[in-house]
Fold these 2 entries.
Entry 1:
Amino acid sequence: MVTYNRILWNAPFFINETKSGISKSNLAAQLEYLISVGVIEIVMPHSIVLPKYLDNVDILLRNRVVVVDQRYDVLRKAKAVLSPICEEFKLKFVFPEVFSYSMDQEYPQELVSAINHLIGFLYPFMLGIEYNLQIVGDVVELKKDVSIIRRFSKNSNVKAILSILQGFLSSYEVQSIETFEIRSNAPTRSIEFFDELVRDTTYRSISSEFHSIGYPSRYVESITRIRKLCTKMVEKQAFKGIFNFATKVISAVTKIPMPSADISDALKVKEYFPPILNREFSFEVQEQAMNDFR
């Protein structure tokens, strides 16, 4: 079990529908698994269909969900940042409220793949900045994707934007963080147990320190506090025999970067740099949710 504070969750989910409405959704299974790994708040970007699906989720799960960007302000900003790239490579966003697009012509597969990854990352990244969230991504792969797009681009504005993104991504370092996890043979994994867990003062202190990882000036101090609090948590009588110590990998900005003013203005970054969980975490959640869904 990893202690996360507020995580942005925009992974795809699936539904079975009948004439009478939704019969079952693996969204509920995803939310349940996220709570089971210690997420206090699950933040989801607004969409037209999301309220319909959340209405069919158990209230204990739904109470952990926070919906953001309901007026699509951050979505519009993300599209504005990408507009020169869209213009050069003839991309068209399909719907104003959805971050999906179409291409008018064919390009080499490596370029298409790189653009897919970049577009899929930018909106969550800007949501993470706006709402102080942890997000899911792969910094190493994204650096490669930006380099590929720069190699194909012949537009100076596009190259400038990609340099800005490269500057931010280069500020991130992969870090191993000491935390704790639920033992595989733990006596309980019920939603009610995790609801009790997230009310625990020590647990909430750990989650608060994980949030502080997003501030480079607090990073070192927060890591030290997390280590001490995790020791206290594992040794707590109320949770005796439930937890083990563990090491988790996260990408974070450990030193305040010194980019040009244009970089900060373009993405509206001030102090908080979203910690980035590896994509394997997303795959793990989706795989477990699909197993439960079946």
Entry 2:
Amino acid sequence: MVASWGNDNYFCMLGEGSVKKLKPVICELCELLTKTVEEEEATILALPPPVRKAYQRLITGAMCIAGLIDPMPGYCGSSPADVTLITTYKGSEIFESTLKILVTHKNAPFWGSQYDEFLKTATTATLSAPFLKRHLSALALMPGSHDGPSPEAIKAAIKDLPDLRQGLRQGATAQMETLLLTALVNSGRLMMLQADLSQGSDSVNMVMNGLGLFMNKDGVLDLCRELSAWRGKMSANMSAHDFGNYMKDAINSQTASKQQYNTNNKNDKYNINNKNNINIDVAQQP
């Protein structure tokens, strides 16, 4: 079974001359194998031990390829352990040995660079994977929903993206960046459609700061210029809006303090009267 999967055509597909062109096909094969094993887990567990072992060997090989060919941490369920099992293999099985030579050979530019990047970021990728997954979930548009991600989700993604870019392999944050940029562009466009300022300066600054992470993307610089011009035009309204919020909070705070003062004053009067009554009662006792 292992030989039927890991045949000459399979290894030729992974070769330096064709791997870049066939990367989508290779990824699809990895995903298909992973999905099949997950869906048929009960059936596979019921198979004889030698067959189960063969499945495990195929899965490990596929996870090694998935972990190297795609920079996304945990892609297709892969882990650093899957890559290490193949790259440090010392056995005599042809399938594992061939894969090891293929992905670690010094004269293999594609796999060599992928493996080098993997080694440099393996620890960081393991630690960052949960954060990246959480951001992807928070930024993704829910099926059937027309609402974008929350301002809190956008703000958190803006904060973490620079560190994720620096600590992960190139391209690992591509999906997150696409979702974040879409959210920022939509937010910026909606802001400029407002006849008056319904949001404070913090929201405008957040969008501008976020767009600053994508200045190399087409159209972002133009959008920043439009937003900057709009912000200048609306600055008076913005100041009035922020000042209005400040005054509203101040009035509410003053009202609450006054109510508390009246309550305390009333209680003090009650205590005084009660104390006088007690003194009178005591005085009148024989």
